[in-house]
Design brief:
This protein is α/β, with parallel strands linked by helices. 41% of the residues lie in helices and 17% in strands. An 8-stranded parallel beta barrel has the order 1-2-3-4-5-6-7-8, surrounded by 5 helices. Helix 1 (17-29) runs parallel beside helix 2 (45-60) and helix 1 (17-29) packs parallel to helix 9 (194-207). The longest helix is centred in the first third of the chain and has 16 residues, at 45-60. The radius of gyration is 16 Å and the shape is globular. It starts with 5 loop residues before the first strand and ends with a helix. Ligand LCLJCK34 is lined by residues 8, 37, 39, 69-70, 84, 86, 89, 105, 107, 127, 129, 137, 160, 162, 182.
Length: 208
């Protein structure tokens, strides 16, 4: 997918699509963002649809891929660029067929076995985490840089690192071979705003 590590942005778990459009535009205009994942936990399908309709054009106007979390069928129906699926988010092989030509990302926690399986099933990227403690989600798995080193030496399929990543702690992950750093709090909760969060992450990745 890329050469060099890039920023993979994930939305806050709850948002008002109309209000968030501007925040998103400012964040994407601040620097390099490879993709946005819409991750609205526990939202009704109609609300997810409204959010896709409001936010996907903001991404596409800036050449940023738009990925929907959790639901490959809805991602396909709404014309998203792809879907991110966890281990409990349905049939990965079926999603691969449905999302022919689109992006399929799969959560692999800290498991080499899950990552190999995801690769065999045609994932476009595998996601490892959590690398650091996070307030965004309760996590049951803890990943280390050895996993990124092993994967990036062995495999061509890109890997995403996630979980508590900030500008201050990301350098070892970049050096270990992460192709993407996925973040929520580091951007949306940045004390100087989301644009500053993107700039800080871009600078930290470049300096790693
Ligand atoms: C890039 C990326 N990596 C991991 C996850 C986590 O997915 P999952 O395990 O399905 O958990 P939820 O995000 O659905 O709570 C992700 N969303 N994105
Ligand atoms: C959505 C998600 N998945 C994780 C995993 O380990 O699979 S950690 C996580 C939360 C990421 O948010 P933040 O950047 O604020 O820590
Ligand atoms: Mg999920």
């Amino acid at each position: 997918m890329t050469e060099g590590c890039r920023l993979y942005l994930i939305t806050p778990p709850r948002l008002d699509p109309a209000a968030f459009r501007e925040t998103l535009a400012a964040a994407l205009d601040a620097g390099d963002v490879a993709c946005l994942q819409l991750r609205l936990k526990d939202a009704a399908q109609d609300d997810v649809k409204r959010a896709v309709e409001a936010l996907m054009p903001v991404c596409h106007a800036r050449d940023v891929a738009f990925i929907l979390n959790d639901d490959a069928i809805l991602a396909h129906r709404l014309g998203c660029d792809g879907a991110h699926l966890g281990q409990s988010d349905g049939d990965h092989a079926g999603a691969r067929m449905l999302l022919d030509g689109k992006i399929l990302g799969i959560t692999c926690h800290a498991s080499r076995h899950l990552a190999m399986t995801a690769g065999e099933q045609g994932a476009d990227y595998v996601a490892f985490g959590a690398f650091f403690p996070t307030d965004t989600k309760e996590t049951a798995h803890s990943a280390g840089t050895d996993l990124l080193e092993w994967w990036s030496e062995m495999m061509e399929i890109p890997c995403v690192a996630i979980g508590g990543i900030t500008a201050a702690n990301c350098a070892p992950l970049v050096r270990a071979g992460a192709d993407f750093l996925a973040v929520v709090g580091a951007v949306w909760n940045h004390p100087d705003g989301a644009a500053a969060g993107v700039r800080a992450m871009n600078a930290a990745i470049a300096a790693a």
